[in-house]
Amino acid sequence: MSVPTSSADLGIYVHIPFCERVCPYCDFSVEAVGQLDRELERAYVELLLRELELARADLRERLEGRRLATVYFGGGTPSLLQAASIERLLRAFSEVFRGSPEEVTLELNPGILECGRVPAYRDAGVTRLSLGLQSLHDLTLKRLGRAHTAAEALRGLEACLVAGFPSLSVDLIYGAPEQSEVELLMDVERVIELGVPHVSAYALTLEPGTPFARAHAQGRLRLPGEDEGVRMGCLLRARLAAGGYVQYEISSFSRTGHRSLHNQRYWCRQDVLGLGVSAASLLGELRFQNLKSRSAWRALLEAGRRPVEEAEVLSQGDARRETLYLGFRRLEGVSRADFRRRFGAAPEAFFGAELAELRSFGLVCDHAGRLRLTERGILFADEVFLRFVGR
Amino acid sequence: MEQIRNFAIIAHIDHGKSTLADRLLERTGTLKTRERVEQFLDKMDLERERGITIKAQTVRMRYRTSKGQEAVLNLIDTPGHVDFHYEVSRSLAACEGALLVVDAVQGVEAQTVANAEAAVAGGLAIIPVINKIDLPNADPDRIMREIEDIVGISTERVVCISAKTGEGIDELLEAIVARVPPPTGDAEAPLRALIFDSWYDPYQGVAMLVRIIDGHLPADATIRLLSTGDEHNVALIGMLSPELCRIERAGCGEVAVVMAGIRDPLSVQVGDTLTDAARPASEPLSGFQQVQPMVWSGLYPTDSGSYEALRAAIERLQLNDSSMFAEPETSEALGFGFRCGYLGLLHMEIAQERLEREYSLDLIITAPTTVYRVKLRTGAELELHRPSDLPDAGAIEEVLEPRILARIHVPTEYLGRVMQLCQERRGVQRDLIVHSDRRAVLRYELPLAEVLIDFYDRLKSATRGYASMDYEILDYRKEDLVKVDVLVNGESIDALSLIVHRESAYRRGLALVQALKKHIPRQMFDVAVQASIGSRVIARLNVRALRKNVTAKCYGGDITRKRKLLERQKEGKKRMKRVGQVEIPQEAFLAVLSVGTKKR
Ligand SMILES: Nc1nc2c(ncn2[C@@H]2O[C@H](COP(=O)(O)OP(=O)(O)OP(=O)(O)O)[C@@H](O)[C@H]2O)c(=O)[nH]1
Ligand code: SF4
Ligand SMILES: [Mg+2]
């Protein structure tokens, strides 16, 4: 339940920009590599270590003496990396930062090879797996263009459960092409039954520029209707709630003690150092993001420079807005006391009109000293966030 | 004065006036061949893009006849389109002669007749000119017959030319000197100069184009405007040949540009008389007949901060376009703007486009409407320029709408279709004259409102472009007219109200509601879009509420990107107009406003 509040500690995010193949709805920075070439893997890890060194030298006063709280290997498909590479990176982190992280998450796709690596990841220091299950139905997986079958997904899940990690999460998708409500419910049922303690459930979104978005625009892709999509979301929330999961963020559901510490850092605006292609960082009032092309990222590193694409220094006003619009993602909402401590006055002092309007629309409310989304607000969260972006 | 020949080139649209002006400019050496661009006098981008003349243009040329006679020629190229007829009539007031140009293939068309009538009424010498004789299917003999039969002027001394090849131009120049009489003013009398055009020069302020009727104007004069008594020191007098050249005096009978450091565009009126303050004339010249704008629409800046800029732009534009009217108005939905009156739809379109281009404004334009006369139960009478002003039905005795007498020139093979179109538009046939097996002139009485809605487009497509039309206002007639209001979640949007014939109310109301529905983005709640007559709803559609609006995931790498996406959404919302709680994008207004003017 506890969320780290000390600004002295740090999370590290490591981006692995490789996938076996690229799913047609994905708009992350990834490349399809089939199996990750040993040489490519080694070279990428080398570059990550070099980036760490450069960041450390460049941002000495911001990073020096920090305690490392969480590490997150995301992607892409980090499970394309061997456990040895993960271990090497973790070792390097512990040489630079104090303490040993409470949570080390690794995203993994349920392929045969990856499943074999699961025990080794645990030995390397990973404490939490996040499995890209998406669905337990072959047709849906196929329509989504995923690389695995339902049987592989289940085998992968079992391998993860058997390996005995302190925590485990699975991704479920809903609103997939031609996916039915019954099918979704069966997936959820299975996940609950197997005792997976954390679920990330996403509605499929059409990201501009992806093959799915194009196919949809041309009428070649049939997605469940809007009403059906909303119904699926409700069914899923209800079933997970009944199964003992608490929805602690718009897409995140957890049994007691299994919330993602690392992800909560983003919503609470705690520092994260991002390494790798396209990785994003927040250090105090400094937000920056790495180059999104691997070759550009590499070129800068090889030239001895940090591969940052864009950086901004957040003003107090930016920080206040972020505190609300990121904070609202967590269903607990934003603590009034914390806000006042940080900014010297209540949220209403800065956003009186916005909050009044949101209340009148029934999108936000007060509860136990916190400002938070209402049930309706969860469905219209972007309407809420909109009030807190821009000038 | 004996040397001066002031003449206008008049014709139906596209019969080659501006091209003829090119040839005259070249042949007199006014324009060097290397400066040559087609339709040189069509200087506005809008004119060049559309290939039509919008503004009359004046040029002074020198010419020596074959007999060695020296002449000063003042040419005015005029527009052919009916909506710019006021340009023609003002130009004619500065001239003693007119070249009536007729296309050797198209023959006499509606504006040929209308312009010829205006020139005859002004007592001008008319030289009929048949143009485009280079075309393979040119038929000058037939055209001559048409000029005699339809226009009713003699073609004994017609001049046949090709403005394209230059054939006949010399003969035409000789004819101008021989047949256009020199001006007949009193050179010794006190100065009287007629202001027949004006524009705003960013450096010099107001520029006036004048025709000296009596007396003369020295460059160091103090001028007085007779209508107001205002006096100004002349800063510059010049002639356009074709660039502005400074001159020391403008003599009797001449056309000149006068600038006097006048900064307020409202202080100069086209049609006013200029005199010399040192020796003032007392009797003003007769000026021009007031034009009656029959088409009105609202103009609003898309961002309310530009209202003052719009006001200044309209004042300057009016200086150059005295047939445009403007009065301030406010709309609940659109804020502060102007209600503007025009001579026709093309005039409206051009004026609005000039405002947007020449003054870099973004405008919302409401649907055009005609002028309605309303007789109230109390006996009072109103003239309506916007539909939302129509009082409650209970207070109204009757509503009258303007009707026009349309004169449609059409090849006989298309007669049936044109008659059908007019009939559909509540038209009543006045008469039909068949001039030959090929040409007929059809006269119809039509409600002006029916002509505002895509009538020209329909006429064009029904006759493959072979029909032409001219009209005059006939009368006002009582009709069963009703006001259709548009409501969004119960709030009426005044800018979208329409006055229509009861018979078409349902259809128009539904079309409005459909167009609006298409453009209102779904919101968090249902939005009812209704059309009503009084309190009776005649059409209703719902914009269904969004079921959700939430971005599924947002982690580290996404924070900046998602924020930017949201920021863009927010920017979009800012540009929307809010009616009650409903956000309506500007495109919705635009789309709705074009309903009915596009498709029937
Ligand atoms: N073949 C041929 N084409 C001509 C001749 N004179 C003009 N044209 C063409 O006719 C079209 C219209 O010419 P304009 O000079 O713009 O006509 P206008 O009368 O000034 O038209 P408005 O000012 O819009 O009323 C252009 O495409 C010209 O090139 C001619 O003598 N022969
Ligand atoms: S596995 Fe995940 S990161 Fe890789 S392409 Fe598919 S959706 Fe994108
Ligand atoms: Mg022209």
Characterization of this structure:
Chain A contains 16 helices and 17 strands. Chain A is α/β, with parallel strands linked by helices and 391 residues long. Chain A folds into 2 domains: 258 residues, Alpha-Beta Barrel (TIM Barrel); 56 residues, no CATH class. In chain A, the strands form 4 sheets. In chain A, strands 9-10-8-7-6-5-4-1-11 form a 9-stranded mixed sheet, with helices on both faces. Chain A has a 3-stranded antiparallel sheet with strand order 12-13-14, with no helix packed on it. In chain A, helix 1 packs parallel to helix 3 and helix 7 packs parallel to helix 9. With 600 residues, chain B is of the alpha+beta class. Chain B is 26% helix and 34% strand. In chain B, a hairpin with a 3-residue loop joins strand 18 and strand 19. The longest helix of chain B has 18 residues. Chains A and B meet through strand 8, helix 9, strand 12, helix 12 and helix 16 of A and helix 13 of B.
The beta-strand count of chain B equals: 34
Range of strand content of chain A: 15-25%
* CATH class category label of the largest domain in chain A: Alpha Beta
Oligomeric state of this protein:
heterodimer
Low-confidence stretches of chain A: 1-6
Largest interface: A-B, 43 and 23 residues
Q: Report the CATH architecture of the largest domain in chain A.
A: Alpha-Beta Barrel
Question: Secondary-structure map with pairings?
Answer:
The complex is a heterodimer of chains A (391) and B (600).
Chain A: E1 9-16, E2 18-19, E3 31-32, H1 38-58, H2 60-63, E4 67-75, H3 83-96, E5 103-108, H4 112-124, E6 128-134, H5 138-143, H6 150-163, E7 167-174, H7 181-193, E8 198-203, H8 211-217, H9 226-242, E9 246-249, E10 252-254, H10 261-267, E11 272-275, E12 280-283, E13 286-290, H11 294-302, E14 308-313, H12 316-327, E15 334-335, H13 336-343, H14 347-360, E16 364-367, E17 370-373, H15 375-379, H16 381-386
Parallel strand pairs in A: 1-4, 1-11, 2-3, 4-5, 5-6, 6-7, 7-8
Antiparallel strand pairs in A: 8-10, 9-10, 12-13, 13-14, 15-17, 16-17
Helix pairs in contact in A: 1-3, 3-4, 4-6, 7-9
Chain B: E1 4-11, H1 17-27, H2 45-50, E2 57-64, E3 70-77, H3 85-92, E4 97-103, H4 110-121, E5 125-131, H5 140-151, E6 159-160, H6 169-179, E7 192-201, E8 205-214, E9 217-218, E10 222-225, E11 231-233, E12 236-240, E13 244-246, E14 249-250, E15 255-259, E16 273-276, E17 295-301, H7 307-320, E18 325-331, E19 335-342, H8 345-358, E20 363-365, E21 369-370, E22 372-376, E23 381-384, E24 396-411, H9 415-424, E25 428-434, E26 439-447, H10 448-452, H11 455-462, E27 468-478, E28 481-488, E29 491-492, E30 498-501, H12 502-519, E31 527-533, E32 536-543, H13 559-574, E33 577-579, E34 582-584, H14 586-594
Parallel strand pairs in B: 1-3, 1-4, 4-5, 5-6
Antiparallel strand pairs in B: 2-3, 7-8, 7-16, 8-15, 9-14, 10-11, 10-16, 12-13, 12-15, 17-19, 17-20, 17-21, 18-19, 22-23, 22-24, 24-26, 24-27, 25-26, 28-29, 28-30, 28-31, 31-32, 33-34
